[in-house]
Amino acid sequence: MSRFTKALPKSKVCRTCGHRKPISTKTGINFWKNSSNEDGLRDECKDCFYEWRNANNEKLARAARRKGVVADAKAQRLLLVYVLEVA
Ligand SMILES: [Zn+2]
């Protein structure tokens, strides 16, 4: 639980796909956190973020390798989630 939890609105319009989505559902969240945003959430939904991530997988993998991260898909995914959640 973060200090943003109480202030979070219930839904948000994704800037990329334009759909209004609930921020959290029973199965998880639709928007990653981004503390540099006013509402503490990223502007794009998780689906759009994954699309972007998949489109930029090579770039992210190279960046991860430069930082000495194991070039393993699962490790990268975990790292990315970690980076996004604490950012
Ligand atoms: Zn979206």
Task: Outline the structure in words.
- The chain has helices at 46-55, 57-66, 73-86, and strands at 11-13, 20-22, 24-25, 28-29.
- By secondary structure, the protein is an alpha+beta fold.
- A two-stranded antiparallel sheet has the order 1-2.
- It is elongated.
- Bound molecules: zinc ion (ZN).
Q: What's the short version?
A:
The chain has helices at residues 46-55, 57-66, 73-86; strands spanning 11-13, 20-22, 24-25, 28-29.
Arrangement of strands in the largest sheet: 1-2
Largest sheet: 2 strands, antiparallel
Could you say which overall geometry the principal axes of the C-alpha atoms support? elongated
Number of domains: 2
Order of helices and strands: EEEEHHH
Bound ligands, each once: zinc ion
Task: Give the total of beta strands.
Answer: 4
What is the radius of gyration computed over CA atoms, rounded to a whole number of angstroms?
14 Å
Helical fraction: 25-40%
Task: Describe how the helices and strands are arranged.
Blueprint: E1 11-13, E2 20-22, E3 24-25, E4 28-29, H1 46-55, H2 57-66, H3 73-86
Antiparallel strand pairs: 1-2, 3-4
The protein binds zinc ion.
Question: What tags apply to this protein structure?
Answer:
11% strand; two-stranded antiparallel sheet; 87 residues; single chain; 3 helices; 2 domains; alpha+beta; binds zinc ion; 39% helix
